[in-house]
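In the design runs reported in the main text, the only information available to the sequence generator was the tokenized backbone. The following block is the verbatim input for one such run; it is reproduced so that readers can re-run the procedure and compare outputs position by position.
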């Protein structure tokens, strides 16, 4: 058994490192608590369309990247893994903005003068601008080397159904 596809519930850096030492290639997904955003990844390649819906609209795109997976023992170096980053445009997440100072003037800074006089009878509230969003990020990783991002993503999603039924499955 050379390739192991593991659902992310089975993901642990030491488990992956041990299987890598045994010569196995592990394919899995990072948990959301293991990275923050796209900036957590290194050497992110160009984004390329990956999946389309029935209308021909792109719904997912992918890019190759690298990631340093921290290990519980800080004396050990992080486990370097290759990544297929997937942006899923069907699932938009609200971007949390940095906390701004609670200055009473901030709310009206971008309003025209006629829209700032809320105490006048003819004043009408303007709708709030939509919150900024970003597509959901799905990082599929492997301890192997040289696997194309698209192939890596296909391997995980093809075998993930089996991996959810068993602790791990071969690909």
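Verbatim output:
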């Amino acid at each position: 058994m050379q390739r192991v596809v593991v659902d992310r519930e089975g993901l642990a850096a030491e488990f992956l490192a041990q299987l890598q030492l045994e010569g196995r290639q592990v394919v899995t997904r990072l948990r959301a608590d293991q990275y923050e955003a796209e900036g957590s990844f290194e050497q992110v390649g160009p984004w390329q369309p990956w999946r389309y819906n029935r209308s021909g609209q792109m719904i997912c795109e992918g890019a190759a990247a690298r990631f340093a997976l921290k290990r519980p023992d800080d004396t050990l170096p992080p486990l370097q893994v290759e990544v297929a980053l997937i942006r899923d445009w069907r699932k938009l997440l609200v971007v949390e903005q940095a906390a701004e100072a609670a200055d009473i003037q901030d709310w009206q800074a971008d309003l025209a003068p006629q829209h700032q006089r809320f105490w006048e009878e003819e004043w009408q509230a303007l709708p709030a601008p939509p919150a900024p969003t970003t597509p959901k990020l799905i990082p599929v990783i492997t301890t192997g080397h040289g696997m194309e991002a698209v192939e890596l993503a296909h391997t995980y999603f093809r075998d993930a159904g089996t991996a959810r039924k068993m602790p791990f499955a071969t690909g």
